Amino acid sequence: MSDDSDIPLEGDPTGGVAASEALETAAIPQADDVGVDASTERKQVRKERRQLLLRSPGFLFGASILIIWVLCAAVPSWFTKWGDNEVVRVDGSVIPRVGPRADAWFGTDKIGNDVFARIIYGARPVLIVAVTAAVLAVAAGTLLGLTVGYFRGWVDEIVGRIIEALLSIPVILLAIMVLTTLGRSQTVIILTIAVLFIPVVTRTVRSAVLAEAQLDYVTSAKLRGENSLFVMTREILPNVTGVAVVELTVRIGYAIFTVATLSFLGLNAGDSSAADWGRDLGKQYDTIQAGQWWAAIFPALAIALLVIGVNLVADSLDRVNKS
Fold first, then answer.
1. Residue 14, SS3?
2. Assuming Cys at both sites, which of 52, 131, 248, 264 could form a disulfide with 282, CB separation 3.0 to 4.6 Å?
């Protein structure tokens, strides 16, 4: 039997108002529900993007290239029996300047080093420097771009003018000036490349943040009384992460070219006899005129192949991010 006291009497204004308020409260989505829905939607979007990537031939081919080079850098002994500074000997004799053959797939260089082995071992220094520099540049550039894009005003004006000034100077020229002044240690090279790439990353992320800051979800967060740090890191940052990831892959490609160019010019760190694609190209390119092309061409092809792999991944990520 129901309790009559719980049923509002006909014409009772108190009961009608209570029932109306209950219905309105039930119809209003709570903050926790909105957060859960947004989180679920983001997870679904990420899942769909992963599926698109895995169905992209360009991404799969580029990722395969990168995986091979990473393995070469991590465990070079899997791919060659020769060391990077070990001369090739046949019947006890050193065989320099020999073209590609069965016992030296890419031939030998001026002093008898196996070119194939030096390419395998040369993947490590270029990947370490390029990837580390790109990660630092994107991390700092994303933070700076997020800040200036959100606050705008005088902060944006000052940072914008500094960025324009830095972007007007050729990267290689500025890198040469810095390395000539501060030295050629690996740390200095990494930090130099990272600092040179920060302005362009900042500009890209800033543009994305400016677009996101005008959307309703950011306005809603401000109306809820959320502070600027929360809005930037919890609301805007997840929605520009895709842009930052694409920028990371693009910067890695540019960093590879920068590292190789500096090595070609002799502005690299470490032992001068150690395997390094840019340095080997710089030492061996004069042999092309003598018809001994392999010692210079194969390091150049290694640089090109690595950059192609990075660019294929970057293009695929960019297309998926925009879809």
1. helix
2. 264
